[in-house]
Amino acid sequence: LVTLAAGAAAVVVLVAGLGGWTLQRQAREAAARASAAEQQAQQVVTAANQQLSVVRDDAAKQLAEARAGAARAQMVSDVVAAPDLVRFNIAGSGPAPMSGQVLWSRTRGVVFSGVRLAPPAAGMTYQLWMLTADGVPVTVGTFVPDATGRVTFTAEAPRVPRAVIGAALTLEPAGGSATPSDLLMRNRVAAPPPPAQ
Predict the structure, then answer these.
(1) Of 11, 52, 179, 182, which has fewest CB within 10 angstroms of its CB?
(2) Which residues pair with 126 in a beta bridge?
């Protein structure tokens, strides 16, 4: 009877040990699954945050572009309606010459609209100048046309204490120059026809 009780106790201990080992194994597996699920959830959260950041940045960029476009449109409207508006046509030469128009208002600003502008070389930019009666050009600012060669550039009117008689474009190092290099294109004034003889 004692042997039988000892055997039964041994079986109980063995079963309890196996049960404990099984429970430990199941607990480890559950912990591993929980850890994997937590890592996966963290990856999902990280990916969602990255996508949200990209969407937020894209929305901010689009909003900034829309605001800049609205401000540019307002300035164009203001300059076109200015009582002191003066227009200067600019044209290039060659088989597909660039052409453009400078709208100058001492009180409202400057607008340059151009088409067929060649892309500037790397590290270069277009610079717009107002030409004055005393031959001292005054810079308006720099710009780069879009991929199609079009541009609508607006700027506050620079202080020009002299009479403005024209406009010109130059190619300058990025950031612009204090004095113009060779004038690429300038406004063309049509000469009056010669008197009939």
Answers:
(1) 182
(2) 143, 171
User: Tokens for 134?
Assistant: 């005393």
Q: Name the E strands within 106-196.
A: 109-115, 124-132, 138-143, 151-155, 164-173, 185-186
Which burial class, exposed, middle or buried, applies to 4 when counting CB atoms under 10 A from its CB (0-12, 13-18, 19+)? exposed
Residue 97 tokens read as 């010459």
DSSP states along 1-45:
-HHHHHHHHHHHHHHHHHHHHHHHHHHHHHHHHHHHHHHHHHHHH
What does the block give as tokens for 57? 């940045």
Please name which of 132, 115, 125 lies closest in space to residue 170, comparing C-alpha atoms. 125
The string of pLDDT tens digits covering residues 101-111 is 999 999 999 99
> Which tokens sit at 22?
């099984």
pLDDT at 48 over 90: no
More confident of the two residues 190 and 185: 185
Q: 134: how many CB neighbours lie within 10 A of its CB?
A: 9
